[in-house]
Amino acid sequence: MTLTPEQQAALDQLFLHVPSGDGHTPPVADALHTWLGVSGADVKARLLDLLNKKDELEAQLLDLVKRYPLDSAFGFLLASSWAFYAAEKDVNPRIKTFIDAFYYIATCASVGYADIFASTQTGRAIASLVMILGPALTNSALDRPAKTRPLER
Question: Which pTM value belongs to this model?
């Protein structure tokens, strides 16, 4: 593995921070910033910002699902299938294509039967989320109020 010059400089700087004999340790560079270019403080600030907007985002999401139930259910299944495929494709011998992942996720959202099983913790988490939310989204998409029409004679 080859390090970028910035990563190598940060790594060199980290090794310079050796505790002194008085028990005082100099501050260590932020590992997230060193490797990903984003600091832990930035991540924390963005997460807190999202938490502050949680109620507003939740209301918008529920309104979207209510207005467009079939689109929401299908979008959820596609996104979940993509995430499951990304988590399992190199680990699970039963997941060779996106369609394999879609097949598994579709069964998780409905009858729960499949001849495919998640191999990774991420895959299991995605499948669990689909098993919890999938049936409710499917129900909202398929259980639409019937439009009343006058009876013809």
Answer: 0.60
